[in-house]
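Consider the following input, taken from an annotated entry for Glycosyl transferase family 1 domain-containing protein (Kroppenstedtia guangzhouensis).
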Amino acid sequence: MRTTFHDILHAVPRVEPDPHIQRDPWKAVVISRFVASKHCDHAIRAFQKVAERFPQARLELWGFGREEANLRELIRELGLQDHVFIQGATQDAQAVFQSAAFSLLPTEREAFGLVIAESLAAGAPVIAYDVNYGPRDLITHDVNGFLIQRDDLDGMSEAMITLFQDREKWAAMCREARNISENISEERFVRQWIQVYEEAVKQKQNRVQMKKPTCRITDFSWADPSTGTWRLEGEVVFRQEMERWREEVQMALYLRKRTEWIDGYFPAVIQWKDDRSIFFQSELTLAKWMEQSKTLRGRWDVYTSITVRNAHHFVRLGGTEENPPDTEVEVPNGIICPYYTEHGNLSLWCKKADQKKSLLSLLVGN
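Applying the prediction step yields:
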């Protein structure tokens, strides 16, 4: 199984205050696409309470999109024409953020949230919905911004009122906001990418080129028919010497439904026979599966799942006429029938317990 993952945030350059831009302590801004998922209308609705409390406060929305007409209509309906303004697209987001007291992001989802990082780097705290995944990675609640429960318009209003009213708190948050550039600096970004390439070189030296092995059943039986517990034994034969990787071979039995993407793993115990082959044993308690959902009834194909470091193969588990599948068994909630397909691979057929007709007669050629 591959276990090396690297999490690298976007870099945001340090923003030096522009002496020609005056920060307006009574202005909030939104920079966003005007689409339904961004919920710019939430910012407008939440600002209604703010405007009643502070008539000098204003909200600017920068962007464009198919919701623009609806947003303009909402501004008129709420009587906020003197407080909320749609400014269109901007090519200089940093200038917008540097001129604002804080920014808003009432989106329903956000991956990284580059707009959050840009606002913080410019010294503008961010009030955002606490949604997956970006906001909470960048915003520390009540330190460099506020994280509000999604759709909580009152909470968003109160956060804005706090920043407009408590100037000492607002100034402290502005200072904290600028520290984001240290956490996601360009220098750190470069170092992290260098580490990725260094790790890739190390992994290349340790990679395994494993050809697809073959698997066959040597024996199986119903260990406990009442629960559908099925004991399987078999052999895996590799196409190369595996002595170097003996301790790293991982194996399980894997069942996958043929008509839907429903699957599951069952652990297997392995024992090496020689440098190219292993003997395995596994027990599958199938009745529990049938209890979970009616969708689990149907045809299931049986595989072995074999992993060595980076290499992985799913291999269909086959058998021979010398070890035919056991007959079907009836468990409290269904009937389970193992069988070989026309290609000699092992599969299962699971049906309701009230089906009296033998299932074997239905499986020819499947």
